[in-house]
Design brief:
Strand content: 5-15%
Helix content: 40-55%
Shape: globular
Subcellular location: Cell membrane; Membrane
InterPro entries: Beta-lactam/transpept, Beta-lactam/transpept-like, PBP_dimer, PBP_dimer_sf, PCN-bd_Tpept
Protein name: Penicillin-binding transpeptidase domain-containing protein
Main location: membrane
Number of helices: 37
Radius of gyration: 37 Å
Family: Belongs to the transpeptidase family.
Largest sheet: 7 strands, mixed
CATH topology of the largest domain: Beta-lactamase
CATH class of the largest domain: Alpha Beta
Length: about 950
Amino acid sequence: MKDKKTKFNRFTAFFLIIAVIYSILVTKLGILQIKNTEYYKERANATAITEVPDSAPRGPIIDKKGSLLATNIQSYILVYNETSDNKKYFFETMDKVFKLLDENGEKIQDDFELKINPFRFEFKTNDADARKILEVRFKRDRGLNEAIEKKLFPDKKDSFTNEEIKRVNEELLKITPEETYKLLIEGYKIYPKEDFKNLLEQYRITPEEAYTIMIKRFNIKDTAGFKKRAEEYKSSKVKDRPEILQSIIIDYSVDKIKYPLEKERKYLIIKDTMKMQSFSGYKPVIIGNNIKKEAAFAFSERLNDLPGIDVTTQPVRYYPNGELGSAFLGYISKISGEVERYKEKGYDVSTDYVGVAGLESVFEDRLKGSKGGRIVKLNKQGRIIEELGRREPYPGQTMKLTIDNGVQLAAEKTLDKVMENLRKNPNQSYDGVITANATRGAAVVVDVKTGGVIALASRPGFDPNIFSIPGKLTSDLYNKFFNPNYEEFAKNYISNRGLNIEVDSLFPSVKTKDGNSMRKDEYDIYPKPFFNYATSSFTAPGSTFKPLTAIAGLEENVLGPNERIYDNLVYTKYGYRGRSWNAVSKGNIDVVEALAYSNNYFFYEVGDRLYNKGLDTLAEYAWKFGLGAPHDVDKPTTGIEIPELFGQVFNVQTEKNKASNILIWSLYDELFQLKKSIDLRVRAEDSKEIEDMKKDIQSTIIKHMRYRNVTNFSEVLKSKLKELVQKAPTMSSKNFTDGDISSVMSKVYKYVYAVEEEALRPGNVYNASIGQGSNNFTPLQLANFAAMIANGGTRYKLHLIDKFLDSEGNVIQEVKPEILDKVTLKPETLKAVREGMFAVTSFDEGTGSSVLGDFPIPTAGKTGSSTSSENQERVGRTSSGLYIGYAPYDNPQIAVCVIVFDGGHGGYVTPVAKAIYEAYFKEELSKINYKFEHVN
């Protein structure tokens, strides 16, 4: 039997090829699933695993009784995680998100500084130079500098010099807000054809659904034709699609379609946030912050239809009392300045909030806590599906204050009420003061035995929640806080008061460094919510200073405790003319009566006696009581933890400094008007050499005006002047002779003597003795002064902090009372001054008795009226009303200072002091069935 010959035909070849292909596939699968299984498993996991930061709860701030002043609340937030899978659904998803937000009364989180309608930047500062810095940073962060750098320095390869950076920044500032907006829209590809392309390419929904969306969104009328072209696109080869897409876009005018501006900007906000956050690792983009629970649930129910969207929670800073305590609490906000410094400290500058003012800022490091984080696995939609590890966030320290919430509320509430009444009834004064502009005020309450600040109010205030809770800072509030319309305000102000004055005189236009102009509140008329009037406003103390004049007179033995001085009404010594506010003489009065009646003549006389002891005698006593400080004290302070300014009493050196600052310009004018004029003012056309010479001459003259200590002043100045007139182009041709230089020197000496004459006038001391003239202090200083009288002369370091506690309530640090100075006073001095201040509130004619005379707890005090400027009436202002005092009179516990700017008289503000006393002594007063006037 013959063997059959095996035939190699096409079927055999086919099966052989199939066998080879399957063998290769099996081998590859084996390598993937067996040999390299761990490698690919690890790689797959790595792409789905990331660390999500968890914010630390900020440390609470509580008052002395434990009431919350600042805390944290768990807030629902709506976030978006972009992945390669959900990226193509961006516009469709966001449309649904925006619709759901609107339906639930929520808004997209909008911290984006570039606004529309009109196009503008809104940066949280009212400083023009700071705005420029922030604008440059905004544009650089988004890469707008790159095109400018290529244009200006096309061949530049290494780093840029400071001069080159300056040139680029100048060009950046020329890009208008609208141009910036358009560049960002282009850069982020926020235009319909990108959306159109994504819809054409997506396979997550059926073609019919995609077509329906496009037909509706892009207003396509040719439905049948469009579907046919779309199917052609879908079925074409990938390489042919760009050409087909462009054809469809042109035919259906998609490239001419624009999103509504409001919606377009919403897309931009999210795209921009994604880019800014990409510089610091993975973070979900917050679309909606602090959304209501109902809105959060509405989104949770729709998550399957919203790729990349998720709902989570995070702590948000919350101030339960709104405006209450804003003057010392401050607020938190997203990082906008000092970016590099915060980066070095580990902050995420794209999302983190920091303290910006007040205690929130000063104690940022203690309050912020430590961030936590979670190692999580994400699915392809960017949602967390598994938590693999966790680092718990650690809350910030609890800050316990010396503040009493009830007293703080009474101070703020009554200040507002008193100011409102003064505005509504502006013509109630016997002497014609008009209180229509009583819009700013402050109150400070101090524990006289510890220096702890019990209340610190500044009005108007602001609600810190506006900055901690995204979306609350509206454009209207932004303009009110950071960009007030001074011109519109001034027009209404002038019209309402019938003033004969121009807007430019009231709010003059001044040039900024970049050559632009801005209006300045020259006379401190506009109420400023962020200005702390309690710690930083200067005021002449008026008659509230008279107890200090009495102390100085009694201690220096130029006044006896029982001595009587006749009230001649008008004081005319050395050509000075000052009069008592009372129309009829009080006759012979002692120090107690003089304080009770606030008699000017009496204290003029005491001031004259102190003047004869030495020009700075009164100042030296004021310094002991914290009203100003000697010039060798580097940085005088009350000790308060938050920023403060520190006012000064009249003294010879300060007066010389002030006079020289004013008179030097008159000197320059006279020198320029000489027949052979000499110009000492620095001009733009001056060379660096001439500029330095002029500044050196200016410094030499001013130094001699102030201190008379320039050795061989005449020879030194002559030499410098000769060198200047020889080298300055505008003067070298005038052939100055020694006689010409002598004429210049005589002018200089005229003003040197004028400065000294101004500083040594007896009238300065007379003005100071009644709290006017150059005396200027903060309400905080005046409250501490009152506390020193109450406690017998001990000056405590003022403080707001009582303790720092950890999250378990354990004490980390306790602030103990600290004595800065102790003034030893004669018993008869204290007795006379205290009796005089008690008489203010108890005598029938006492200037504070009409409000405080019937208060069941005896109090001591002093009213005052302070002049804001010589021409205050011309600009619609009037004197401010002040009150200082303490209670109880026989065993003092607290001291107060109250001021209402343009409040007229001290008697008008005493209701605030009464409200403070009612709140502080509430428990004691309740026992005697006291009828509270200001406290609930």
